[in-house]
Amino acid sequence: MIPGPRNLITDVPGLLVGNAQDETLKSGSTVLLGEQAMTGSYCVMGGAPGTRETDLLEPDKSVAQVDAIVLSGGSTYGLDAASGVVAGLRERGRGFALHTLRIPLVPAAIVFDLLNGGNKDWTENPYPALGRAALDNARADFGIGSVGAGTGALTGMEKGGLGSASLVLDSGITVGALIAANPVGSVTTPGGRHFWAAPFEVDGEFGGLGPDPRGGLGRTFESRKIAAFAQSANTTIGIVATDAALTKAQAKRIATAAHDGIARAVVPSHLPNDGDLLFATSTGARQIPDAEVSQIGHVAALCVARAIARAVFAATPAPGDLLPCWSESTG
C-alpha cells in the first residue's frame, strides 16, 4: 500500500479540511467536513479529555451520522468553535432533518494551549469565529504544521502541530488521519533528532532519518513543557477516516485500534493529564467484508503515527514561542 496523492486525510474522497488561526492568540481551529453526512464514533484513552457531542457517537445512540468534526485549541473555550461551524452549516441547509428543521451535528474535541505564550486576554471568545472561518476555508488541499488546531501545540520537547497522512490499501480503500499533536510526552527520542514513529515513515515524509540506532530508550522522561509550565496541560486529538462503509460499532473499534498510533509516536502517551481522543469516520462509499475492518484499524494506526511525526516535522517558529521547532533543535 502507498500514500494517497496528497498524503492527507482528504485523499478519502468526499472529505474536506479547513484551518483558521490567530497568530497573536497562538491558537486555532480545524474542521473536517463531509460533502455528505458521515458515520462516526470515537475512543478516549487520555485522562483529561474535553469534548462536545461525543455521546451521540456511541454505537447504541440513535443518531447515525454527523456533518463535520472539529479539532480546536483553547481548552473549554475552544469547544465553542463547533458553534461557529454549526451556524455555518445551518446557513448551507446541512444537518439532521427533523420536521421542517435542519440540525447540524458537529462533535468536537480540544487541546489545552492556554499557557503557550499567546495573548489570551480576550473579552469575547474568539473560537466561534475561528470555527466558522475554518469551515469557510475547507478544501481538499490544506496546510499542516503550525496551523489550525496545531497553531499553539507543544510536545514534551518541541513545538507540536497539525499533521495528516494517508494510505491506499491494495483493495482501493483509502484510510487517512488528521492529528493535532500537543502531548506531554515526546514525539522524538532523547536528543530530539529521531522520531519514535520512524519505523512507519514512508518516502522521507518527516525527514527520512530512520529509527534511532540506540537501544534501551524510554527509561528516562525529560519534558521542557513540564519545566516551562510547572505543571503540564496536554492532549493529542484527531480523526481517522475511510471511504469503507462502516457501522458505528465498527467505527468505534477503528478509533480504538488507531490509538496504537499515538502510543507508537508519543512516549509516554495516554497519561492522566493527556486528553488523548480519536474520532473515526466513514463516508460509506465502498462496501467491504467484515474481515477487512481489522486491516483498516491497523492502517489507521499507521496513519496516526505518521501524522503525529509530520505535525512536529512541519511546525514553524513564531515570535514568543516557548519551545523550539524540530527544525531548529536539529540544526
At a glance:
This protein is an alpha+beta fold.
If you had to describe this structure to a student in words, what would you say it looks like?
There is one protein chain. This protein is α+β, with helices and mostly antiparallel strands and 331 residues long. It is built from 7 helices and 11 strands. The protein has helices at residues 75-78, 81-91, 127-136, 224-229, 248-265, 292-314, 326-329, and strands at 15-22, 27-44, 51-52, 65-72, 96-98, 101-103, 108-110, 161-168, 174-182, 235-244, 277-286. β8 (161-168) and β9 form a beta hairpin. The longest helix is centred in the last third of the chain and has 23 residues, at 292-314. The radius of gyration is 18 Å and the shape is globular.
Write the layout of secondary structure elements.
Blueprint: E1 15-22, E2 27-44, E3 51-52, E4 65-72, H1 75-78, H2 81-91, E5 96-98, E6 101-103, E7 108-110, H3 127-136, E8 161-168, E9 174-182, H4 224-229, E10 235-244, H5 248-265, E11 277-286, H6 292-314, H7 326-329
Parallel strand pairs: 4-7, 10-11
Antiparallel strand pairs: 1-2, 2-4, 2-11, 3-7, 5-6, 8-9, 9-10
Helix pairs in contact: 2-3, 5-6
CATH class: Alpha Beta
Strand count, sense and closure of the main sheet?
A: 9 strands, mixed
- CATH architectural category: 4-Layer Sandwich
Q: Spans of 5+ residues with little confidence (pLDDT < 50)?
A: none
- Span from first to last CA? 33 Å
Order of helices and strands: EEEEHHEEEHEEHEHEHH
Helix content: 10-25%
CATH superfamily: L-amino peptidase D-ALA esterase/amidase
Helix/strand class: alpha+beta
Counting DSSP E segments of at least 2 residues, the number of strands comes to 11
